[in-house]
Design goal:
The protein is an all-alpha fold. The protein has a domain of 70 residues. The protein is 74% helix and 0% strand. The longest helix has 69 residues. It starts with a helix and ends in a 15-residue tail after the last helix.
């Protein structure tokens, strides 16, 4: 030993050395264990993300179906509104076309 090394050892004579490194030795078995744990974590994260995407896709499909139903109902209401406006337009034109409105309708039965 040289003089500087013995001085350093003298300074830290009462300090206990770190024994943590000797408790956890990194060998091939521990590396395999760590690798398996990391792969398991990534697999779980992938499955959770995939499940979330599938759930959101299902919700989007439901919302698109509801949107289509609402659009079809809106179209039916627009057709009904146009039909009602057409009847009112015919009633308004009765006076201008010099026609008379009919109170009751009688049909003839032909034999």
């Amino acid at each position: 030993m040289n003089k500087s090394q013995s001085e350093v050892e003298g300074m830290f004579a009462g300090v206990q050395k770190n024994k943590l490194a000797s408790r956890f030795a990194v060998g091939p078995v521990s590396m395999q264990f760590v690798t398996v744990v990391i792969l398991a974590l990534f697999s779980i994260l992938y499955l959770l993300q995939n499940n979330q995407m599938t759930t959101q896709g299902y919700q989007i499909a439901q919302l698109k179906s509801q949107q289509l139903d609402v659009l079809q109902e809106n179209e039916r209401y627009q057709v009904e509104a146009a039909r009602l406006k057409a009847l009112n337009a015919v009633k308004d034109k009765i006076g201008t076309l010099e026609m008379e409105s009919v109170e009751s309708v009688k049909y003839l039965a032909v034999k």
